[in-house]
Structure formats: structure tokens, C-alpha cells
Amino acid sequence: MEMLGHFNYWVSIILMMTGFYAVIASTNMVKKLIGLGMFQTAVFLLYISIGKVRGGTAPILIDGVAAGDVSFSNPLTHVLILTAIVVSIATTALGLAIVVRIREAYGCIEEDETIAMDMADERAEDAMPPTIADAKRRLGWLPRSQAASRAPLPAQLPDRKPAASRPLAPRKGPTGRRKSAPRKGKGRP
Fold it and tell me: Where does the sequence pass through the membrane (predicted)?
């Protein structure tokens, strides 16, 4: 009889474990979000059932009734759950927006398929030809410490002199006139 007296706790636990299983076992991202919603709802039910006292009323004092004669339900859990429901809705909306974006990018919402596509992209990037910066570095046009860019290498590199031996273009100011280099002099390095 004692077990049946806590029926609301058992319902919460069963809902919680069902939602947890859906999050862990499913590869479909929408089903994962549904499982997450079930889990959150089970937590809400658990907290609301904890706050309810059998025979208790709302904690509103009426003139002429002593506080010792009446038992009250705790309103704090209900208020906290109202906040949690708002957070739950926002989490679900954000999750659905991310799933829509993943569907646009990958063409599916199955987790294992998207991971397989990412792995294939990484293997393809490893097999890519060297970048322009790598080719310039090998020819001595760039210092070895400069990071490589990810721009693809064109079919042929133009014949150019190394950067150190090329003359610098004249610098021009906003008026279009050539600016002179700063002079060394008094108070200047």
C-alpha cells in the first residue's frame, strides 16, 4: 500500500527514464529533442508533486482564520517550475532551430550520418593539394613561421622574384599624393 501512495513519484521516474533513453539511444535529432522534453516534463511533475501537501490550501491568509488551524502547500516549487518551463521552451526552440540548420547543411537529421559526412570531409581535406602559402614558403617567398592559408593552389604559380628583392610601391595618402617617408631627425628614432 505504501508503494501505491507514491504513485506520482513512480510516474515521474518512468517518464524521466523514458526521456533519458530517447536522448541516449536515438540517432534522430528530433527524437532526441522529444526525449529531452519528456525528461524535463518529468522533472517538473516531480517538483510540483513535492510541493503539494494533501489537504493543504494555497498560502493565503483570510481574516479570522488562525495560521495553526490550516496546512498550506508550498508555492515555491510551483514558482520555480514556471521559470523552468520558460527555459525548457527556449531550449526546445533553440534545439529545433539547430536541427533545421543541420538539415540545410547536411540534408539529414540522423546523428550518425552527419558524423560520417564530417569524417569524410576531414579525410578529403587531408588529401587536398598544398596551399598557395605552402608553395610560396617552399620557394622561399614567405618565412617559415607564417601560418599557412587554406586557399587552394592554382594550376601554375606566376614567375615572380622573391618579396625581399622587389621594390616597394610608393605610398599614397588620402589625397592621392605620394607620401614621403618619415625623416630621422631631432626627437625621432
Answer: 6-26, 33-50, 79-100
- Cα separations (Å) of 122 from 56, 125, 126, 152, 170? 61, 5, 6, 16, 43
User: For the chain, how far is it from start to end, CA to CA, in angstroms?
Assistant: 93
Query: Whole-angstrom Cα distance, residue 106 to residue 67?
Result: 62
Residue listed under C-alpha cell 589625397? 175
Spatial separation of the C-alpha atoms in residues 189 and 182, rounded to whole Å: 10
Q: What is the DSSP string of 155-182?
A: SS------TTTSPPPPPB-TTSPBPPPP
Q: pLDDT band for position 170 (50/70/90)?
A: low
Question: Residue 171: how many CB atoms within 10 A of its CB?
Answer: 9
pLDDT, greater one: 183 or 147: 183
Residue pair 73/53 in contact by the 8 Å Cβ criterion: yes
Closest CA to 36 of 81, 83, 112, 90: 90
pLDDT value, residue 167? 54
**Whether the predicted pLDDT of 12 surpasses 50:** yes
Could you give the 3-state DSSP secondary structure of residue 136? Answer: helix
Q: How would you class 83 by CB atoms within 10 Å of its CB: exposed for 0-12, middle for 13-18, buried for 19 or more?
A: exposed
